[in-house]
Amino acid sequence: VAVSGLTFSTPTVTTTSAVWSWNPNGNGGATQYRLYESQDGATENDLTNIMGVSGVVSSTFTRTLLSPNHHYTLRVQPFTATGASAGSTSVGGFTLANAPAALTITSISSGTVSLSWNANNNSNFTRYEVRRSTDGFSSDEVIAVPFSADLKSTTVTVTGLAPFTTYFFHVRAANNVAPTTLSQPVNPAIPTAFTADVSPFT
């Protein structure tokens, strides 16, 4: 008897682990389940072989050692004393993204600040949001680059800044489910108003 109700538990997913559960349908004489994982929806890996066990006897499975912000699917196949039953449909979701690390100011010019950060093992399709503040995020906070801008690079130039103003910056990442916590702020950045050969009074 095929299992049913295979679910990916979004509330319990982390950056490196995920939990699946299913309805064994009375087991149908199943003594164990073989689990097949895929990251691309096509190529499957037999997790029971990878983990070095013959099969899983519980109807809940926690997969660890996953990568941040990657998509994983699982297919469950019951085994009885006489052989394999039909496998379930594959079900999956995204692990959470890591918070970006090592946020750094790389250059400052008139009205702009360029930033870079470490992806912190996130996938290449991770989206980033950049926030800025003039008071260390005490009360002033502006989203300078929203998630909707689809920024997937780990570098960005924030424009439209006021000259001779101190700015603080945060960056955070998002997977297909929810954004991460904010990075540690980088500060301060004070855009210069003019190049060396232009007078501020002309």
Q: Could you state the order of secondary-structure elements as H and E?
A: EEEEHEEEEEEEEEEE
Query: Rough shape?
Result: elongated
> Uncertain regions: pLDDT < 50 for 5+ in a row?
191-202
Q: What about the largest sheet?
A: 5 strands, antiparallel
Question: Secondary structure elements and their pairing?
Answer:
Layout: E1 4-8, E2 18-23, E3 32-38, E4 44-46, H1 47-50, E5 60-63, E6 71-80, E7 83-84, E8 91-94, E9 101-109, E10 112-118, E11 127-133, E12 142-145, E13 155-158, E14 167-174, E15 186-189
Antiparallel strand pairs: 1-2, 2-5, 3-4, 3-6, 6-7, 6-8, 9-10, 10-13, 11-12, 11-14, 14-15
Describe the structure.
By secondary structure, this protein is mostly beta strands. Helices cover 2% and strands 42% of the residues. The protein is built from one helix and 15 strands. The chain has one helix at residues 47-50, and strands at residues 4-8, 18-23, 32-38, 44-46, 60-63, 71-80, 83-84, 91-94, 101-109, 112-118, 127-133, 142-145, 155-158, 167-174, 186-189. Strands 3, 4, 6, 7 and 8 form a five-stranded antiparallel sheet that branches. Strand 9 (101-109) and strand 10 (112-118) form a beta hairpin. The radius of gyration is 24 Å and the shape is elongated.
